Amino acid sequence: MKFERATVIGAGAMGSGIAQVLSQAGIEVVLKDVKDEFVERGLKNIKRMYDSRVKKGTMTQEDADRLFSKVRGTTSYDELGEPDIVIEAALEEIDVKLEIFKTLDMICPAHTLLASNTSALSISEIAAATKRPEKVLGMHFFNPAQVMKLVEVIPGVKTSEETIKHAMALTKDVMKKTPVRVKECPGFLVNRLLFPYMNEALWALQEGATPQEIDDMMVQFGMPMGPLALFDMTGLDVCAHVNKFLYNEYGPRFESSPLLDKLVAAGCLGQKSGSGFYLHEQGAVPQKGEAKKTNPKLEEIIKELNADGKVRKSSKKVDAHRIILPMFNEAMYALQEEVVTPADVDTGMEFGCGMKGGLLKIAQEKGLEWCLTEINAHHKELGERFRPSWYLKKLVRAKVENFSELEPKQMAVR
Ligand SMILES: NC(=O)c1ccc[n+]([C@@H]2O[C@H](COP(=O)([O-])OP(=O)(O)OC[C@H]3O[C@@H](n4cnc5c(N)ncnc54)[C@H](O)[C@@H]3O)[C@@H](O)[C@H]2O)c1
Q: What's the domain range around 248?
């Protein structure tokens, strides 16, 4: 399938990034929002992205002008033309998305693929708002979309293999990004794996580790930034909201420390509010290696929370493996459910959140049996957050030491 024309619905942070990527790939793009001012803001953002490429010397002014001219803004569905694909990046509300997809289905040509960039809503439910569910799918980009390489490509229950094949080819060959096919599940792959890890960092804080200790440990382990810095960057309120959703879907593996809600209630939302786990001076750009100041409110809340002595503590000092193992265990659950292949776990974590060497390197370095023994020990001491997946147990019983020993068909995602 040839992709010559595309529409992006929603000219916000994600929509403008996606429109930039599509236009840079030579595709004519219509960017639609609900008000002229939002369309204008989106177009300005895209112009800024091209300007920065020229400034960095990765693109000539002439090419930037030519590619930017491929993007046209509108507020009207009448001006979408005949797109080969529509990528929706509007508000994360199911009713808004259902209405958009119903309309798109009525006005777009029969061959048009309809993709949603939803972070968490059901692709199958969105597809059911159309009469072409076989042509509807999830294409989950990461923020900033014009920079991050990973795109999770998510089939709904009725999405055809052909649609997925075309979306994978568009992502890889045209947009030059890295697609990973992910079976529809709450949080898809990357967010699902990140939250048990971020939650464990909170519990470790409650056991006495400092934010800087935890973050330094995880950066040394191979993460581009520590989990607490990531909370501050993403917004503690946004994280609390996503984690509640995942907890409702998956249960106690996603239990978060009450610390998070307490900080949100105290107005400590991260960088955007000036304080989260750290203090953030408005406008100051943190320098690499610079020690950050811990938010004094954090210590106060931890003292208050620990006063009743109910927090279960590990008998061992917190180390990087303790924080990463819940992520690894969740990856085992995802493999158990055939959500992805082992290779895609690594690709997802490397390209979606910059984890050097991917996640499953722990299995390579330490062995699966060691991972299970550690997870079991933490399960005994710390409870349900560490309940091991039966897939991991099965692999250990089968004496599998490494994922590369498995036949491709045993790793296939259905
Ligand atoms: N921000 C992220 O980190 C991120 C990452 C991956 C996916 N997403 C998902 O991408 C989507 C957009 O997120 P965002 O951060 O760009 O939000 P945003 O608030 O920056 O932009 C949303 C835009 O959609 C517009 N909009 C709302 N209703 C519309 C409609 N009916 N038709 C057309 N436009 C409409 C709004 O006016 C706004 O300009 C959400 O579904 C979000 O969950 C966000």
A: 189-414
